[in-house]
Amino acid sequence: SDRNIQPLINQSNVNNKQFDRNHRLSVQYQLLSRAGAFVMQGAYINDLIVYNKLPSRVARYVGMLRHDAMLPGKVSAQFAVEWNHIVAEIKDYENGSARENRYDVSASLQKTFYGRLSLSVNLRKPGVIGFHAPLVAYTGFDLGIIKRTNTTVSLRSNVSTNFRVPTLNDRYWKNAGNKNLLPERSKSAEAGWRLKLYN
Fold first, then answer.
1. pLDDT tens, position by position, 128-181
2. Eight-state DSSP code of residue 1
3. What is the DSSP letter of 173?
4. Rounded distance between C-alpha atoms, residue 177 and residue 170, angstroms
5. DSSP 8-state symbol, 135
6. I need a surface site. Which of 4, 73, 120, 167 has the fewest CB within 10 A?
């Protein structure tokens, strides 16, 4: 893409231009068997942004393994491992570049009881070199209260813990970033109901 960037309302006679070039390559292998579905995937992502003739490049290498299976008791399960290697070459960074390795290990379980109550549990262990990441969890349910031909009413709720590492821009941007930024940790909960009407 090649485009002109709209100036801010308080700017005049500004002609900012941006050129983007994005490459995506992904390879996937899938094996279906009695033990479930096994998926292995690798990807290479290369993004180039040229803003007013100033180039910025970010390359990502991604590897992922995932296994979906049906456990005893008709429990649907998914186990996954993902790795990301990020290389950023940006002149506005303090040293002109930054590298980072991230990984995720996760396990998800889901079961439906009597066709009305669905329970979900998700455990995930994120990791970023240089940060101590806790185990984060999600649990939720969906309970069908009314199930008729033309009307369904259900209650939904979930609680979760969350973890977010500051971005590379947050840490390495020249005269603005801070390498000592701490990661964000939070807890959240929500509840609600859903009504569906059919003709």
1. 988 999 999 999 999 999 888 889 999 999 999 999 999 999 999 998 899 999
2. -
3. B
4. 5
5. P
6. 73
